[in-house]
Amino acid sequence: MRRRTYTHTHRLRLERAAAHYLRDCYRRVTAARASEFASALGVTAPYLSRIAPDILGMPLRDFLRRKQLDYAVQLLKTTPLPSKEIALRCGFGTVSTFHRWFRSAFDTTPGAFREVMK
């Protein structure tokens, strides 16, 4: 079977859909889930997980996590909210999960990151 080629337009559409989905998660203060995102797009989770790396250049789960961390960085830079509130607003569920993912991505804690940004 021939592998499908995805265009820049496919990437933009998927990124916009992800941004919309994540904004909805932030508004509801719920965790982002690849299966829920796939359902919102009207496709199955296995299908979306299979095509996402070709479109986004990374697995869907990593892409969604990266977007959550980008939002967390924005909140750390622009608000005095405590880590617990940021973790919940960004859909991480717990502060420890937020700290683990943040440290993994940026090699520092959210608190230390905020201090450097002052």
Taking the alpha carbons of the first and last residues, their distance comes to: 54 Å
Cα gyration radius (Å)? 15 Å
What's the number of helices?
7
| Helix proportion | over 70%
- Dominant shape: elongated
CATH topology: Arc Repressor Mutant, subunit A
Query: What's the architecture in CATH terms?
Result: Orthogonal Bundle
Largest sheet: none
Q: How would you characterize this protein structure?
A:
The protein has one domain: Arc Repressor Mutant, subunit A (Orthogonal Bundle), CATH 1.10.10. The chain is mostly helical and 118 residues long. It has seven helices and no strands.
Write the layout of secondary structure elements.
Elements (H helix, E strand, L loop, with lengths): L7 H21 L5 H8 L3 H12 L3 H19 L4 H7 L5 H12 L3 H8 L1
Helix pairs in contact: 2-3, 5-6
Which terms would index this structure?
single chain; 7 helices; Arc Repressor Mutant, subunit A; elongated; mainly alpha; 118 residues
Give a quick rundown of the structure:
The protein is an all-alpha fold. The chain is built from seven helices and no strands. It has helices spanning about 10-30, 35-40, 45-55, 60-80, 85-90, 95-105, 110-115.
